[in-house]
Amino acid sequence: MSAEPDCLSPASRRGIIRDSLAVGLATGAYGISFGAISVASGLSVLQTCALSLLMFTGASQFALVGVVAAGGAPLSGTATALLLGTRNTLYGLRMAPLLRFRGVRRLAAAHVLIDESTAMSVTRDSTPAARLGFVTTGVSVLVLWNLATLAGAIAGNALGDPRRYGLDAAVGGAFLALLWPRLGDPSHRMVAVLAVAVALGLVPFAAAGVPVLAAGGVALLAGALLTRWGTREGDA
After folding, report:
1. Rounded distance, CA 118 to CA 7, Å?
2. Rounded CA separation 190/63 (Å)
3. DSSP 8-state class, residue 207
4. How far apart are CA 166 and CA 170, in angstroms?
5. Which residue of 13, 24, 156, 160 shows the fewest CB atoms closer than 10 Å?
6. Which of 135, 122, 195, 111 minimizes the C-alpha distance to 13?
7. What are the φ and ψ backbone dihedral angles of 204, each rounded to 5 degrees?
8. pTM of the model
9. Under 8 Å between Cβ of 39 and 55
10. Which residue has the higher pLDDT, 25 or 149?
């Protein structure tokens, strides 16, 4: 990354803002699905909106309501959500020296540290460009995700029993939609197959939520092993 310039050119600034807002709009709109699925799983509109505002990480939110919908204990759902949220910690290790935020700004940035804001800043060639991409994307997703969650929760609440419309299968569909773009890599496909096998094998014997936790554990273990193997290959 180059030394921090005095300012970005107007054209560069407009381009970053345009791209970031487009990502924010596309991602934020998906909050409608979460809102509808959450109330269909038994959470209230207020609880649903609180999750989007305070947790604000889509995969973890879907995981929590998925466990609750399956009859699992809230503690199991929370553990599953925390497990999936560990990737944000890894993002933070990469983004902290890149963005160079301090104090209150660093604390605020942590709340919008998600897949999209990270992706829109990590490829920039200067600190101001990285900051602009990060903040614009993070704030736009935060605002639109929460508005869409409210709309989806109200609409889902008005539908009544979700089983009449097949909404009880929506959590699995949402997870598949989140997972599908990441299956282009052969190693990712291998990890997904192993995780699915472990989860399905535990379903007849374990309480709701435990198979998801076990599948997440498989993914973490596989990730650690693949990273170690890659490091050894690089040293060879």
Report:
1. 21
2. 21
3. P
4. 7
5. 160
6. 135
7. -70, -15
8. 0.69
9. no
10. 149
